[in-house]
Design brief:
two-stranded antiparallel ribbon; Protein quiver; 28% strand; CD59; signal; glycoprotein; 9 strands; membrane; 5-stranded antiparallel β-sheet; 2 helices; alpha+beta; globular
Length: 134
């Protein structure tokens, strides 16, 4: 008994070999040092692979997600993007004039405009392709 059509089964097998499992990637930048690290924009050059920590009390801790912090206590605001090694998913949690965003997916600490592009890709490119496979 076959559960998947032959074409779909071949596609899934090919996809497993063609796309290796990707490590977690997050944007790393600080608006004090990088003029292109703003709340509504971040350049692709700031995208880095997140590796286990190599020093400190959390030595060898693996990353669990990405983080973006907006420090509104400074003028101008300070935007920091990095990998996250502890905590949980939060969306705009306030702490001492800071807004903290933490998420578990790769590249999720980008700007709002880049997240909109991802939605457009999924909705207009990927969704019709998956319907084609039916």
């Amino acid at each position: 008994m076959h559960f998947l059509p032959f074409r779909l089964k071949n596609f899934l097998i090919l996809a497993l070999f063609a796309f290796p499992i990707l490590a977690l990637e997050c944007y790393h930048c600080d608006s004090l040092n990088d003029g292109d690290c703003q709340e509504d924009q971040v350049r692709h050059e700031h995208l880095k692979e997140c590796n286990p920590l190599t020093f400190g009390p959390y030595y060898e801790r693996v990353p669990i997600g990405c983080r973006k912090m907006i420090d509104k206590g400074l003028s101008p605001y300070r935007i920091t993007r990095t990998c996250s090694y502890m905590g949980r998913r939060v969306h705009g949690r306030r702490a001492n004039n800071k807004l903290v965003y933490q998420c578990a997916e790769s590249r999720c600490n980008s700007s709002k405009s880049q997240q909109n592009l991802l939605f457009i890709f999924i909705f207009f490119i990927l969704f019709p392709f998956l319907n084609f496979l039916k």
